[in-house]
Write a structure and sequence with these properties.
The chain has about 400 residues and is of the alpha/beta class. About 40% of the residues lie in helices and about 20% in strands. The chain binds guanosine-5'-diphosphate and magnesium ion.
Length: about 400
């Protein structure tokens, strides 16, 4: 009889805060703390049919915690048969007050993205649709949102159901091909939904901040002809070919005695060890010798490193190409100042996520991926019954027995 409570909006300064209270005893819990304004109907039991009630949330000592609007959720919204949306004034204090109130009544706090799956009846074939709806608020680009909406609409569910029927009918090869096709979508979809990281590294004055701004299409990072302008890691979200890319601009890596610059350099090197792409910006005029040795040594073996040979407008095509040839990483030549070559770099960073069909079926959670990878394995081994269970698990969200 668990009741779940989740914040539908961030716990941050804001104009409205949404709380979702969902589960078989949600009505009873709400009845204990919600007082409709005098003269208005609005006991939770009256709220059927999309009716909205205005009233207050009352704390344990009778104090008013917030003035709110309450609406009963429609089961078609995918959060189960019993639940409420409580719209308060937002902000940190009111939001936390309301949240704590429901927790004190025994409601279990969860992340809003988990709510659809928790509220869906266990074993329901709607699980992937619920998961997609849960992830939708976190979508960073329109293409990611389109993809999740397609899954909320049943794109993945349909193919999983078909694969499941194929296995039942003994069509092992067709089912295998179907599962393979689905699994191929997992990695690019992950990049599209959760974003890609890319850190810009290089010597001072190579043009990292200019490139950062160019990729972000803004003037966020300070650009200066003198070295050492960027001392802390500056981050921003770029949308490259519909793919969210979290960019980090770093302090130039150099041998410096300045205490603040030293910290900046240390942070840059620390970032270089993080996840995602490393983009080493090289000043083509200054040549290969200007690339900090720490970077060459630290990144040589890494497959996710690309060089941007910058300032081609000054060094010329031949000059830039000759620098590129001497680098240990794949390189894109161009100019952060004029924009030449920046599109090629952007395509590289966006990677296979650029070509995901955002209206087609896509595997978009680790859970789905694990079950499908298992199904592929079992199909390859000829275990049709096992494969069927795994596909069903991907479909319904219930772990296979054993
Ligand atoms: N001509 C030319 N100048 C550039 C280019 N990219 C950056 N710069 C200049 O190089 C200087 C250093 O750039 P900045 O982005 O601050 O370098 P950072 O220290 O690596 O962040 C600035 O004067 C920029 O305008 C480029 O492609 N061509
Ligand atoms: Mg800079």
């Amino acid at each position: 009889m668990t009741v779940y409570v989740a914040l539908g909006t961030p716990l941050a300064p804001g104009g409205i805060g949404v709380l979702l209270v969902v589960g078989p005893a949600a009505r009873e819990l709400l009845g204990r703390v919600f007082r409709p304004l005098p003269g208005r109907r609005g006991e939770p039991a009256d709220l059927a049919g999309g009716r909205i009630s205005r009233g207050c949330l009352i704390g344990a000592s009778g104090e008013t915690l917030d003035e709110v609007l309450v609406r009963a959720l429609d089961p078609a919204e995918g959060l189960g048969p019993e639940g409420y949306e409580i719209d308060g004034h937002g902000g940190i204090a009111c939001g936390r007050g309301a949240l704590t109130l429901f927790e004190s009544l025994g409601a279990v706090r969860v992340d809003a993205s988990e709510l659809p799956l928790l509220a869906a009846p266990p074993g329901s074939p709607q699980a992937t649709r619920a998961e997609a709806r849960g992830l939708l608020p976190a979508a960073m680009t329109l293409r990611a949102a389109t993809l999740l909406l397609a899954q909320a609409d049943g794109a993945l569910q349909e193919v999983l159901a078909r694969a499941s029927r194929l296995v039942e009918a003994g069509g092992r090869d067709e089912a295998f091909a179907e599962v393979e096709r689905l699994l191929a979508t997992a990695e690019p979809t992950r990049a599209l939904v959760h974003g890609v990281d890319a850190v810009l590294l290089g010597a001072p004055n190579s043009g990292k901040s200019t490139l950062f701004n160019r990729l972000l299409d803004s003037e966020r990072a300070l650009v200066d002809p003198g070295p050492g302008t960027t001392r802390d890691v500056v981050t921003g979200l770029a949308v490259l070919d519909g793919v969210p890319v979290r960019l980090a601009d770093t302090a130039g890596v150099s041998a410096t005695d300045h205490p603040v610059e030293k910290i900046g350099v240390a942070r840059s090197l620390e970032r270089a060890r993080g996840p995602g792409w490393r983009v080493v910006v090289v000043d083509a005029l200054a040549g290969v010798g200007s690339v900090p040795g720490e970077l060459v040594r630290g990144l040589e073996a890494n497959a996710r490193t690309v060089a941007f040979v910058n300032k081609i407008d000054l060094a010329g095509r031949d000059g830039a190409a000759s620098v590129a040839r001497k680098l240990p990483w794949p390189a894109v030549e161009g100019s952060a100042l004029t924009g030449e070559g920046v599109d090629s770099l952007a395509r590289m960073l966006a990677g296979p996520a650029r070509s995901v069909d955002s209206r087609g079926p896509a595997v978009f959670t680790p859970r789905q991926e694990v079950h499908l990878a298992r199904a592929r394995e079992l199909l390859a081994a000829g275990d049709l019954a096992g494969a069927h269970r795994s596909i069903q698990s991907a479909l319904t969200g219930v772990a296979p027995p054993g």
